[in-house]
Amino acid sequence: MNDRMNQAEAGVVAPKGSPKGSASAGSTRWIGKAVALAVIVGVAATAYHLHQSGSAPVAAPPPPPVAVSAPLQRDIEGRLGFLGQFSPVNRVELRAQVGGTLMQIHFKDGDVVHKGDLLFEIDPEPYQIKLSQATAELESAKARLDLAVRQLARAQELQRAEAGTVENVDQKVAELHAAQAAVDNGNALVRDAKFDLDRCKVYAPFTGRMGTHLVSTGNLISGSRAASSPTTLLATIVSLDPIWLDFDMSENDYAAFQHAREAQKGPLADTVAISPTGEAGFARKGTLNFIDNTLDRSSGTIHARATIPNSDLALTPGGFARVRLAVSAPQPALLVPDAAVLADQTDHMVYVVGQDDVVTPKKVEIGDLRDGLRVIRSGLAPTDKVVIDGIPTVRPGAKVSPHAGTIESTPEQQTEGAKS
Question: Where are the domains of the chain?
């Protein structure tokens, strides 16, 4: 009974009347056949899979699609580009010519004031007193002069009547000269006192923008007519219209500018176009009116300056602007999208598609940006099909699937310059 239960737990139950050793051997043979069958099925499946894989060909990927176009042809003038900074034509430090207590300030910091506007007022009372004293001395000198004139006339009359002496006449002449000198001195004292009184008011020397006031009302300030002694700085004022734009030319750019100027039959048009920070395009115009006479040895540049009208007072000293300077008449040129030009170490290249749709790189010499397009100075033909879209998928010497594209210009932006 126990033997039959053990066999049942092992999963093998021998039929009645059969010996135990015979059931165990049959079970072992059945398991071995099952394992062998599983191995055969696995080997057959692997062989079938390998056969199927070897017989199916791998499809080649299609050529990548790209947009191509001939370079855009346009007549453009030769020009140079620079970065400049605005500076005022006039900048004045306002200082008093007389000392005293500052009574009033007649402007707000940052105001635009006009020539002749009253800015500061110093206590005038001490100078009014001085003017009154000088005026009184002048009146006294005039009275003495009038007396000296009458006395000289009487002395001369007595001399003609032989009742007076020559010495008396000479004395009266000397007194007349002394009285005249006193009058002249009195006039000078009056003008001097009036000059000081007038300088108690500080006026704007020109139209411009005021800086912050550096002295508050009630402060005692020092002044000097000839700045022979320390004076108090009251404020600064800068002119705004017109305004200067200073920039530096590299030695190569200056050489190109000089060469273009010499090639011109008539005088070179010194018109510059500028694009201030915050403004799109180059709508503002100015005139190049100064180029320095020496190159800076340390920087290898030469200083230049243009005068820019600023009637709307939008341009501020210290601000920056892009500068374009035309150096030649318009000439035919080829242009491509800036994204189509690739940097190759120190050179530049574009991808061109040939008759067999194979991509070939072409080395080009580039110029500046014009309406968002890059000027190609050399290395490209007008009939070349330049890849203008899909460039990341292109490989030199590989085939592509080209389709016609369009090169479109965009308005010039402030970030214009040479591509490095």
Answer: 2-51, 66-75+331-404, 79-88+242-326, 95-237
